[in-house]
Specification:
Layout: E1 2-11, E2 14-24, E3 29-33, H1 40-47, E4 55-60, E5 63-64, H2 70-77, E6 78-80, H3 93-105, H4 109-117, H5 123-136, H6 152-165, E7 170-174, H7 182-197, E8 201-205, H8 209-215, E9 218-223, E10 226-231, H9 233-237, H10 240-247
The structure holds adenosine-5'-diphosphate and magnesium ion (MG).
Length: about 250
């Protein structure tokens, strides 16, 4: 599904990614881990075309995407969440999900506004579909709350729901469990698995090792921009280079 081939990204003198290669197969949950500054978010920013790589290529379902603008990558079926949650705080929960649906249907902005204002016959359909997404993520009781009023855990669920509502083939989750308590983290890992089982391939950046080891089939480890290991959760837990990188030795 996704092929990262020898990607290097430089910001001036900083090498954020250094000839990194890996693949994500259809239907997998793949983990991208590494200490702070390892280059994980930069990799996500290149896959979603927010940044272009300095060298190397990114292929999604057989198409080179590394030179496309971001607005052309999303409709191909790639969606993401952000380490710093990016929901529309002044909109309600259900409106945020409707924005995600709008991205999928690719209607224009005025079309979206008229949907939100309720002047279109499809409004009810879109609304019902949005409600079914909220139910999937356990947010249905909060549908009319302003996003600004939500707890961190619910905000992370809302961003996840909005990304899912674009009906992606590949979903990039950047630290989706950051700041969540133990119970919320467990629920999040079950949700990620449920989303994968619904047919979405998932690449996760996550610091919570229990979550990563529980849900990922394959794990890629970055350290200071370089890939230092790749393997199953068991292989990664036993890998000397990974242990050294995490201990900071
Ligand atoms: P991670 O997500 O693994 O913590 P990042 O990808 O955010 O790491 O950062 C990797 C390196 O690239 C860091 O040294 C960071 O400061 C640098 N970096 C990331 N984005 C930018 C940017 N837009 N401009 C300059 N340096 C950046
Ligand atoms: Mg990051």
């Amino acid at each position: 599904m996704l092929k990262i081939d020898s990607i290097t990204k430089k910001f001036g003198g900083i090498v954020a990614n250094n000839e990194v290669s890996f693949t994500v197969e259809d239907g997998q949950i793949v983990g991208l881990i590494g200490p702070n500054g390892a280059g994980k978010s930069t990799m996500f920013n290149m896959i979603s075309s927010i940044y272009q790589p300095t060298t190397g290529s990114i292929t999604f379902l057989g198409n080179r995407i590394d030179k496309l603008p971001a607005y052309q990558v999303a409709p191909l079926g790639i969606s993401r969440t952000f380490q710093n949650i990016q929901v529309f705080k002044s909109m309600t929960v259900i409106e945020n999900v409707m924005v995600g649906q709008h991205m999928q249907t690719k209607t224009n902005f005025s079309g979206m506004v008229s949907l939100l204002l309720g002047s279109r016959s499809e409004e009810k359909l879109v609304y019902d579909k949005a409600m079914s997404y909220l139910e999937f993520f356990g947010l249905e009781n909060l549908f009319d709350q302003k996003a600004a009023s939500l707890s961190l855990g619910k905000l992370r669920l809302l961003e996840f729901a909005r990304a899912f509502a674009t009906q992606p083939k590949l979903l990039l989750l950047d630290e989706i469990a950051a700041g969540l308590n133990h119970k919320e983290t467990l629920e999040m890992s079950e949700l990620i698995t449920k989303v994968r089982d619904s047919g979405v391939t998932i690449l996760v950046v996550e610091h919570d090792m229990d979550l990563v080891m529980r849900i990922c089939e394959k794990i890629i480890v970055l350290d200071q921009g370089t890939k230092i290991a790749e393997g199953t959760p068991k292989e990664i837990q036993e890998n000397e280079a990974v242990i050294t990188a995490y201990l900071g030795a």
